[in-house]
Amino acid sequence: WGTKHNFLYKYPEYENTLPDYLLNNEIYLEDAGFAINCGYPLVLRPDRGVQLILSFDFGIADPFETVTKAAKYCEKNNIPFPLIPPVSEEEKNCPSSCYIFPGENTPTVMHFPLFNKDSCESNEKIEELKNIYRTAKGIYSEEEVDDLLEVAKNNVRKNKDKIITEMQNAVEAER
């Protein structure tokens, strides 16, 4: 996010064809990661025809925050997105490894919380890992990065069949 100089400002060839928000000397941008901490807006452009989104959530506080914010963003901007039902505090603290959010005339979203009851055995282990891999920590050892990658890989492995099924469903829906 930040202020950027508009390279098209007062450029004669485009002066009467640009939208109003591009007619200023400066353009104010916001990083999608800052707004909703994910790249959903880029993927959901209607011309992309996206049928399936694999959403990997590495958030520590609320593993459903990004997908919930994406749903609100899409609702506000009239972009098709499946309904994300409310999640209990218990589920937020100890989520499953995969959630499938289908919809009518929307992409299906498969949501994968990183630290979950399937890969971490217990609530205590989830909390321990959240503590080790907190965002504010900043620097991780090579071993910590390797361990984190292994957790993410295992989560995908455990849900491989679900992923394949949803990919097949998306392909069939396109036919």
Question: Can you describe this structure in just a few lines?
Answer:
The protein is α+β, with helices and mostly antiparallel strands and 175 residues long.
Structural summary, described in words:
The chain has helices at 32-35, 40-43, 65-76, 89-93, 117-120, 123-132, 142-158, 160-174, and strands at 2-5, 26-29, 52-57, 99-101, 108-113. The strands form 2 sheets. A 3-stranded mixed beta sheet has the order 3-5-4, with helices on one face. Strands 1-2 form a two-stranded antiparallel sheet. Helices cover 41% and strands 13% of the residues. It has one domain. By secondary structure, the chain is α+β, with helices and mostly antiparallel strands.
Give the termini separation.
40 Å
Number of strands: 5
Low-confidence stretches: none
Describe the biggest sheet? Answer: 3 strands, mixed
Give the overall average pLDDT: 83
Strand content: 5-15%
If helices are DSSP runs of H or I spanning 4 or more residues, what is the number of helices? Answer: 8
Shape: globular
